[in-house]
What does this fold into?
Amino acid sequence: MAIGILTSGGDCAGMNPAIKKFVDYSFDKALKPYLIYDGLEGLIDGNIKEAKHSDVAGIIHEGGTRLRSSRSKRFFELKYRQQAYENLQKLGINRLVILGGDGSFRALKQFYDDFGVDFVGIPATIDNDIFGTDYCLGVDTALNMIRYATDAIRDTSASFKRACVVETMGRNCGYLALVSAATCGAEVCIIPELEYDLASLSKKLKKQLHEGRKYIVAVVAEGTNSTKKLVKWLEKDVGIETRATILGHTQRGGNPTVYDRLMATEFVIHAIDKLLSKESKDGLVVVYRDGEFKFVTIDYVNSQKFQIKKELLELASKMVG
Ligand code: F6P
It folds into this structure.
């Protein structure tokens, strides 16, 4: 029985350990594993190769994805999905594991509806913004990259009695910024999910500076589009020399943490076991919720917008005003 794996959308640490586990576990289960390169684009172009152990040897510690990734516009068109289906048919592949975000899952659900190719999605995005799962692969590594950078920036800020504005990724979701602000001891945290009060923050920070504070750390989510505004506010209103660092794609790379390697392993085992089971699938995503692995439908994942838990949002209460 043939089974394929692809990585789609924004890459993240944890994808390589997942690819390795996919190949190893497929062999354990007497399956024929196939590697689909370049995401959905590679599916269309037939960039598919039967996996050998040597393809995945020594990649468990690598960031990024050996299979590469893409954001495919062509896959929205039936004629390209047809082409993709024919590529899979030629190789006898009728089961897929896809690592990516909800957009990638939606694309494969359409593919399933068109041609009945079974698949299980594994949530993999540093944004941690997929409804139905508490955890997406790559988040822990991204948080640790942010922590490393923020600790370093704080060192130099303290040497100069400066403020630093650290901008994180996350698209429209403030999860990365919120958790980073809370765990790096930031004074300010600006995320799309929370209102903030600069006047009240100014008053508080000015008093602290007067009393001897040596630096200010402000963590800002890219989705608020407010980095420049905050630099100006810190310099003009709070009265402290300020530098901004946009962490950008450093957050998407780096060696996967132990947690991401372990989660990659678990996600893949659950995905393959489900694809081998007789239950009806209809496009499923393996999620990690309340400490357990579960399966939900693509429709469920797409039914609501992800929301950060209230208890986590409360961690920012002193950092917004
Ligand atoms: O979805 C992952 C993500 O890294 C977002 O946080 C970010 O907004 C976006 O992708 C960046 O995309 P690109 O790599 O195409 O610039």
Q: What stands out?
A: Residues 10, 125-127, 169-171, 222, 252 surround 6-O-phosphono-beta-D-fructofuranose (CB under 6 Å).
